[in-house]
TrEMBL record:
Source superkingdom: Bacteria
GO terms for MF: cobalamin binding; metal ion binding; methionine synthase activity
Residue stretches making up the B12-binding domain: 92-223
InterPro entries for this protein: Cbl-bd_cap, Cobalamin-bd, Cobalamin-bd_sf, Met_Synthase/Corrinoid, Meth_synthase_dom
Alphabetical list of SMART domains matching this protein: B12-binding_2
Name used for this protein in its record: Methanogenic corrinoid protein MtbC1
GO cellular component: cytosol
Amino acid sequence: MKNSIVRSVEALHEEMTIELVCMALERGYPAIEVIRWMQQGMERVGLKYENGEYFIGDLIFAGILLDEVLNLPEWLQAYAQSMGSASEKKYEGKILAFTVYGCCHNLGKNIFVSYAKAAGFNVKDLGQDVPLEVVLDELDRFRPDIIGMSGMLSETAEEMNRVIHTLEERGMRNRYRIILGGEAVSNQGAQCIQADAATQDVVEGVEICKKWMQEKESQRKSNGM
């Protein structure tokens, strides 16, 4: 099933992808594993775009296809059951997501945003190549629990560091958990620039964010708030 779904997404076959996803869920494959397969297919779409085989419209369609899967009743039910309840998703928290200034690669970030929304998060997506000043303005407006930064190029790790350093200078760093995505940094690199976590796996990234919100809720309850 995995290879079939990956290839179907790569080929941008809408009906076949949805049919294969429903078949995988019927056979008992975990909902989050299906999304990992979707991610692998979309990464191949991104490579084809970079190689000139696909165009921007194809990237957009791949994102639409992912959203369709994430909104399938079959997937929503399987995901809810895997979380221990078939009830409606509960609100998890707020995430401000963006690709840092100097980087125009946003496919991975888009996958993360779609999956985080499906998991119940309120996500504000600032897009790609986002200047620091815009990030700071949106932090004041949106007041997120979590900041999700993405970058593919090694140079963008410096921009991630600049964002975090600015938050520290302004006494704002402790207000947020910060997760990094893309190939710009590893977990070790994330620690060096004082981020809380880094991953290239969207499922793992969302699970990390959920864990943080659970910790925040537990702390709130222990403080009697």
